[in-house]
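thread from #wetlab-drylab

HS: before we spend reagent money on co-crystallization trials with pyridoxal-5'-phosphate, can we at least see a predicted complex? here's what I'd submit
DV: go for it
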Amino acid sequence: MTYPSTTLVTPPTELKPNGFGPSTQAVHGGRRANPYRAVTEPIVQTATYTFANTAAVCAYKDAYLMGDAGGIIEYGRYGNPTVAAAEARLAALEGADDALLYASGMAAITSVILSMLPTGAHIVLTDDCYRRTREFSLKFLKRLGIGCSIVPMGDYQALEDAIRPETRLLISESPTNPYLRVLDMERFTDIAHRHKIKTMVDATFATPLNIQPLAWGVDLVVHSASKYLAGHNDLLAGVVAGEAGLIASLRGPLGVLGAIADPNNANLLLRGVKTLALRVEHQNQSGMKIAQFLEAHPKIEQVWYPGLASHPDYATAIQQMKGFGGVVSFTVRGGLEATSHLIDRLQIPQIATSLGGTESLVIQPALMTYYEYSPEERASMGIRDNLVRLALGIEDAQDLITDLAQALAVVS
Ligand SMILES: Cc1ncc(COP(=O)(O)O)c(C=O)c1O
């Protein structure tokens, strides 16, 4: 049989999966043809790019100065095809025009803030957030003459009252770290729009599967891609996604600040994110089962999980989120030591900071994250001695429950 010759030479086609579901986006989002007809995205491991001759250099420079380099990249800090493929995939998952990949979640957060704010500007940040974000916003920005007000999560009056004429950005996590407070996106964006201020939400704990902040009118969504997006506890990366013009305004500064993602990490991220929908669906289900188990246990004082009716933001969570994720925080009936004993007896979750990977991880925030703070300082930040943050992997929920039950049995 003779086939038309074009069938043999046609490269894999570009796919624009608009309207497809999250699992399809996680596998195909931003798919483009590649010169090798490879099903997977090629890893372009290069620091720099050649030009055929000097005329090509000048043509590129002219095009660049006109604002459209036609996809030509000059140097590795200004772009990389593997990184671009990961950006396209993550943008598709967020329902965003475009995305930028960074070396870590903190690189994304700090670079975006540094790129957007002039000296004299001011930001408002909700509390119960990742402590390095708080540290950067309070200490580093102060040195640059940028002010920061921290307001209690869930107090929208305090958020609005903190706005000043020079306020440029409202920032919140959702769900927050470690109490899983859920931002009411409608109220948050309503305040910002009335005051003509940009918004950024760190949705690391939610993933685009559980909420897409851009669909609620948020300007920029940021993730530590080191967590659920990569999903295997094997890399650090960060991403910011949003409207094309806003992301374009951040791309130039990224080439100056240099907090770029590495092509090998981008490849691992592209591989890891393919199973995002499967993993998050599993983690949503395990999270709910384990939160319910813990809430019913006599040795547990309190559980924070947005899918529980007892959570302060339950009403917002069930209205705005599709699932509640794989992080469950709880306090043990007992003090610092009793809580450490519980953690030490767990067999499956490993003692390690981070979340969103295939392996379950557990920490006592008072000792892991806030060790250098005094008990009074910890208390002022709401960090209880008997608090445990359990970040579920993809193990069987029943095995994790059995493990928790045996560890709790010896807590006194
Ligand atoms: C909510 C949140 N945002 C940002 C970060 C920082 O991300 P990375 O560790 O990738 O720099 C973390 C890290 O734990 C986090 O939990």
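DV: Residues 104-106, 130, 173, 177, 202, 204, 224, 226, 236, 238 surround pyridoxal-5'-phosphate (CB under 6 Å).
HS: ok that's useful, forwarding to the group
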